[in-house]
Structure formats: structure tokens, C-alpha cells
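input
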Amino acid sequence: MTLETTQGLKVIRPQGYGIRYAIRTFRTWWYAAWLRTLGRFSRTYLGSFWIGLTNLLSVLLLGFVYGVVFKVKDPVAYFMFLAVGVTIWGFIAESLSSASSLFVRRGQQMKNNRFAPIFFCLEEWAFQLQCFAQALAFVVLVLALIKPTILLSALSSALLPIINLIVFVFWMMLACSMLGACFKDFAQFLPIFLQLSFLVSPILYPKKALGAHSYIADFNPFYRALSPVRRAILENQVSLEVQIPAFFFNLLIAWLMMYLIHRLRYRIALWS
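output
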């Protein structure tokens, strides 16, 4: 920490811009995100329980519609496949869409206080992470009623894939926030791109349904982050030789993105 004197008052400012800054300001941005969650459902009877409930209702509707369209032979297995996939995709899509306009929405706050731009990214990421945790926990508990071993898989095999997913979403949010600040059209384009990615990704259907076009999934970064989590939860399978290198790769890219935001912090304030 450094002390700066402003008109006789000492102001404490955390040093750094990367992991050290995130750790030192953790309580602030995590609590700010939690207050947003509480405010979102204030004066409701169910509170944040609505996050898991609305996600589950969406999965039930999609499962019924696409189960009829695809004429699935095992509706229960398809519902489980769909529930985990849609929940994870919702986390990815909502996080990136929100990040694309983050600096524009927080422009005045960046200009009027001493928080670094990365602080607002951390707060938004924490908010999306808290929503995702509640939605995924609700889905896993419901699926555990059908297949009890899922609960053990979610707490053991899925741990590293979930961490990789969370870090992947974080650095993607940083990239989208910078692009959204620099190019105002990006926030309008990204939802369209995400919707197309959702349709061509094996989320509503298994990868083998792509047939000769399965390479689309292999080069789809969203699916590559989503699939290991779903496989670990539903099948209790995890590929450590893939997940461990992916973990360090995601950490490196996240650090580079945080460094880039630090270097561009003054321009980001002007862009927004």
C-alpha cells in the first residue's frame, strides 16, 4: 500500500495491477458484487433462489422442445446433458455480453474515483461468478436426485475444469471490456456472435451429431471450456494432461490481459 496526501488527508491506494491487486482489494470487489446480487432480488420472497429456479425452468422448457425435435431415446439423460450445458453457457454468454459494455457503463465512476479499471472488471466477474455458482449448485442438487453420484463428481472430478472455466471467462471478459470501450459497435455485435456460437456448438446436442463437421467444436473455445466441466460432472471423467496445461495457459493470458488494462487505463477512461 502507498499513502498519498490530498489536502492534508491520507488516502490509501493499493499497489499493483494484477493478482496482487486483486488479492488486496478482494473484500471490496467481492462484497460490492454481493450487494448487487442482494439488490437484484430485494423485497422478493425467494431472493437469489430465483437464479437457480429460472435457470431450471429454462432447461425444462428447452429439454421438452428439443427432446421432441431430436426425438431423443433417453429423455432423462438428455435433460441432464442439457441442464449442465445450458447452465455453463449462460455463465459464459452473460459474462461476455455484460463485459462488452462495462467500461461504458462505469465511465463516470472511473473518472470520479481512484479505483483502477481492473477493479470494475473484478467486480463484474465476481457478480457473474456468484450467479453461476448458485445456478450450478441448484442444477447439481436436482440432478443428484436422479443420479446421486453426480454430487461426488461435482465436488471432485469437476473441480479443476470448473477453475479453468472461471479463469477462461475472466480473461475473456477483460478482452471484451477493452474491445467494447475502444469499439462501441462491439457491444452490439457480440450478442449476435454468441447466439450463433450457441447454435453451432454441441450444447443442445452431442458432438457426434455434427458428423463430418465436428471440427467446428474442436476449434470453438467456448465449447472447449464448457465440455470438460460437463463431462466431469456427468461422467466423472477428467483429463489431467489437458486440464493442467490449460490452467497455466489461462493464468498467463489472464495476467497479460490485466497488464494490458493497466497500461491502457488512461485511454480506457477517455474511451468510455
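quick obs: Residues 135 and 233 are 14 Å apart (CA to CA).
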